[in-house]
Amino acid sequence: MDSRDVDAQLENAPLFRRLAYSAVMDLADDTLVVAAVEDLVAARDMDGKLGAIVVRLGDPSLAERLGKLLRVWQVGATSIVVIGDEEAAEALKSDAPPPIRRGRLIWHGVSEDGARWDDARKGPLGAKLDDALAPGRALDWESFEDRLRRSVARNTEQRAFAQRLYGTTPIVTYALLTANLMMFGLQAALGGFDPSVRLLIRLGGIEPHSIMNGEVWRLVSGAFLHGGVMHLGFNMMVLVILGRFVERLLGPARFLVLYTACALAGSLASTFLMDAAVSVGASGALWGILAAEAVFAFAPGFLPPPMVALARRTALINLGLNVAASFRPHVDWAAHAGGGLVGALLLYFVLSRGVPRGDRIAHDRPTPLPGQNIVAGLCVALLVGGAIAGPVLGGAFEPAPTAPIYERVVIDGTTATVQVPSSLAPQPAEVGDDSLRVDQSFGDLLHDPASVGVAIISVPPIPDDTLDLEIASILEALGEAPPSSTVTEGARRRDDTSLRAAASASYRYESDARHDVYIGIAERALIRVDVISWPDGDAFAAGLARHVVESYRDGAR
Predict the structure, then answer these.
(1) Rounded distance, CA 297 to CA 465, Å?
(2) Residues annotated as part of the active site
(3) CA 398 to chain CA centroid, nearest Å
(4) Which pLDDT score is estimated for 224?
(5) pLDDT tens readout for residues 172-181
(6) Which of 188, 260, 425, 470 has the most beta carbons within 10 angstroms of its beta carbon?
(7) Which residues of the chain are in CATH 1.20.1540.10 domains?
(8) How far apart are CA 78 and CA 28, in angstroms?
C-alpha cells in the first residue's frame, strides 16, 4: 500500500474520497488502515473493536476481494458503506458474505450523487456518514496522509513479524507431540483407549505414595500419559496451537526448558496438593505455555503495538476456556496452577532475557542465554529418560499373573482362617464396635491385579427352617448394584458349597473395574468376600471370591 497512489486514486472520486476519509479519521482516535486499493478502503481501531469498510461498486472482482477481506476480518463491529444503487449492493452482500461472522456487520448505502438510500444510524460509522457527505466539511488531508503512512509502517512490521515467526519450524513442539502420541499408542496397545487406573500407574502415572517412596521418575513420565482420547486430543490441540507460537518467539532451547520446568512443577503440585489415586497428562506443561503466552500479550513492550490487541484477546479466550475446564470433575487443578505459575515467573524473569521486544521482534533473533544449550540438553535427557522409565520401572511390560497361589492366613482378631493369594499383602483389620464383625483386606488395587476384602460376621446358629429366609434376604441385598456400577451377573443362590448355603453376584463399575461378591453361611458366622479387579486381572480374579469363602475354617471349633 502506497499512500501516494491511494491519494491519486481518491482524487478521481470525490464521494469515495470523503467516505474513505471518514472511515480512516472518524472511526477512532487512532486507526490502522488494513487495505487501501481502488474502490475499497478498510480500517479498524487498534483494539479491534470497531471497523469500517468503504466499497464503490463497478469492478466485477470487487465481491471476490471483499470476500477475501472478510474471511480474515476480526473486528467486533464493522460498518460497510456501499457506494452505488441498492439492487447492486444487495447482490454484493449475497456474493461476498464471510464464511464465519466475526462480530457484527452493519451495511450502509450511498448513491453516486451522495444520497443515502439506507438511513440506518447503527454501527461505528453510521451516525457520522451525514457529516462525511456534507460538501462543506473541512477535511484535514495532512492528518489523513500521516495516518496512511503510519499504517503502511505498521502493516510492514506485521508482515515482517509473521515472516520471521512462521519462517522457522517449531521442532520441539512437533517432537513433544510425537512423544505424547507414541505414549498413548503404548497405552492403547496395553489397555485400550480408556486405560484403567492400575494401567496408568504401571505406565508411570503420578501416584503420590510411590513418589514419596522414591519413584521420582513418575514426575516426568506422568506428563506423557493421558486418561483417554478426549484428554489427549484437547491437550495436543493446545500444544500445537500455543506451543508453536511460544517456541517461535523463544527459540527451541528456551521453549524446551520452559516445557520441562512447567511439567515438573505441575507434577509436584499434583503430588502434594491433590488427593487422587493417580494423575496423568501434559496439562502442567501446557499451562506453563499458556501463562507464557499471557505474559507476552499483557506485559508492556513485549510485542509490536499492532499485535497487542489481538494477542490479548486470544490470551483471554485461551485462559477463560482452560480455567473453566480446570474445575470439571477429575481434572487436576493443582497441576494446572503449578505449571502456570512457574511458566509465568520463569518466562518473565529468566527466559525473556535476550528476546527482542516491540518492533525489533519482527527482525531480530533471540540472543542466547549463558549455558542454555547445556540446560536444554539436560531437559532432553530428563524427558526421554522419564518417558522410558515410566513403563519399564512401573511394570507395564510385566505379564499379569493368571492364577493365584494361595496361602492360609488368620483373620486378625479372630480364630478364623481363609486362603488368599500369597501375592496380596494383608492390610490392618477393622473391628466393629460390637466386636461381632471383623473386616480385613488383602492387596492394593492400585498395584495388584485384584484386591480381596474379607468380612467375618458372628451370628447365632441359624435354624434349618429359617435358612431359606436368610438366603432370600441376602439375595435381595445383592440385587442392588453399588453406586456407579451395573449388575453383570445377577444375585443367585449357590447350593454347590461346602458351607450351609451361599449366594453370589457380580458388578461392573464405570471405571471398568469388576466387583465379585460371594457370601457364605457357616454354623456361627457369615463370611462375605468382595473381590475387585481390573480388566487385565480378570483371569487372576476368576473364582477368587468363591475360593476364599469356601476355604473358611474356624480354629476354635
Answers:
(1) 80
(2) 283, 336
(3) 31
(4) 97
(5) 999 999 999 9
(6) 260
(7) 168-394
(8) 12
